[in-house]
Amino acid sequence: AQNRVYIKNGQVVNHDRTFKADVYIEDGIIKFVGPASDITVPGGVRTIDASGKLILPGGIDPHTHFQLKFGGQVSVDDFYKGTRAAVAGGTTTIIDFVLPNKGESLLDAYDTWRSWADGKVCCDYAFHVGLTWWSKSVSNEMKTLCEEHGINSFKMFMAYKGLYQLNDTEMLEALERIKELNGVAMVHAENGDIIARNVNKLLKAGVTGPEGHELSRQEEVEAEAVNRACVLAHQADCPLYVVHVMSKSAGVEVARARQRYRGRGGIFGETLAAALGTYDGHNHCCWHDAAMHILSPPLRPDPTTPEGIMRLLANDDLQTTGSDNCTFNCSQKESGLNDFSKIPNGVNGVEDRMSIVWEKGVHAGLLDPCRFVAITSTNAAKIFNLYPQKGRIAAGSDADVLIWDPNQTRKISKETHHHACDFNIFEGMVCHGVPEMVLVRGRVCVENGQVRVAEGFGRFLETPVNPPFVYDALNGKTNGEEEEVAVNGNMKKLNINEQLEIE
Ligand code: URP
Ligand code: ZN
Ligand code: ZN
Ligand code: ZN
């Protein structure tokens, strides 16, 4: 066996419990988790002392847009730079979006996206597919994507009128189809009709600068669409994952729907590092600074937003954190110099998400470390059916492992980040929680502040349909029912749905 690593004296943190244990890794897989007395480590194995450190499952970012064509521009973090930045910050799996052009075959778009990513990715990755238009052929291709390409999640847009937006009838048809295929529906929830009218009114009134962006799509425009999406999903009896919840009002709508429909399951909400780490309440120093902060839904002027959203995450009203990493350089943002609606949307976050959530969540006293693991890794793995291959420190799981120093700090800056873009929306923020070492399938990629990734090392992960966690939640079974099972001689608490390879 090659590629053997023994991590001793660390504190393992999984989403359901934390305990002192040694971890032994061989050929990219975790082979043992338990007390030193229970394992005989072969000679010549690299040994890492993790005293005083936490051992966490690598982060899963369920929302990135690497090298995305958007508004005539291509986002500058490609699948190499983007996954390299991810790994640098402790994220070892990303899920990106295949977004077909209007009228384009979903299967063709899937092939194109694979050709962009394979050979470039430094960590494992999966895809969601966008239902950017709707037709009988789209519906047919969804089945092929599920059955032959391991796609289980489809994103619908309630905004971007004239581009990607579906109407309610189309959404209902799509939701019924996703339900039929046992997949997971995802939704970009903003009322695109309201936004289109507001944009026109603002531009006519002479409001052409970046400040027009949030004014055209305020909190209630997001919250209305979240509620409508939940109602539509309920009508179709389809599980729904609301992407990038950016306001307290929208988060509360997710929470209300979870309570009313599903006994707190079947509907899931994601928020972004951007929503937790910054807000739109400051005076921007220049046009570029303001433009660089533009994404949809937008950062909110309400300064209580970041903490409010963190409290929703802590309370399981929201379940996951992504980045929506979609970075454009200053020069690219300039295409909207005379019209804010032409500024390409998107911000960074794939590198800094883990540290931002630690700083604003655990360090601020709002999250415990187990909940941190749940919202940065395990919940995404469960919802998109990557669990327990990903999202858990356990024998049989992939060795995507972080040695996390909760006491060390790191200052975020465009001068030191690993992104391709010339800006960082978290510039100057100091975060506790640093990934001292990052292992991607057993390969040490970060140590001593150095990032040493291997281009093309990442593999495409098929995400089978019928994620058991999601469908149990839909059928009213308790989420995360657990039982004790023996794994390599150790008693472990495992979710009833886990299919762990036990040797
Ligand atoms: O502003 C954003 N979020 N850009 C990426 C596209 C999307 O809607 O996720
Ligand atoms: Zn979106
Ligand atoms: Zn600013
Ligand atoms: Zn997005």
Which structural traits does this protein have?
503 residues; globular; disordered C terminus; binds N-(aminocarbonyl)-beta-alanine; binds zinc ion
General description of the model:
By secondary structure, this protein is of the alpha/beta class. 31% of the residues lie in helices and 24% in strands. Strands 1, 2, 3, 4, 5, 16, 17, 18 and 19 form a nine-stranded mixed sheet that branches. Helix 7 (219-236) runs parallel beside helix 8 (248-262). The longest helix is centred in the middle third of the chain and has 18 residues, at 219-236. The two termini are 16 Å apart. One zinc ion (ZN) binds at residues 63, 65, 324.
Amount of beta strand: 15-25%
Mean pLDDT: 93
Which consecutive residue ranges, at least 5 long each, have pLDDT under 50? 483-503
User: In terms of structural class, how would the helical and strand content be classed?
Assistant: alpha/beta
Ends: how far apart? 16 Å
Discrete helix count:
15
What would you say about this model in short?
The chain has 503 residues and is an alpha/beta fold. Helices cover 31% and strands 24% of the residues. Helix 8 packs parallel to helix 11.
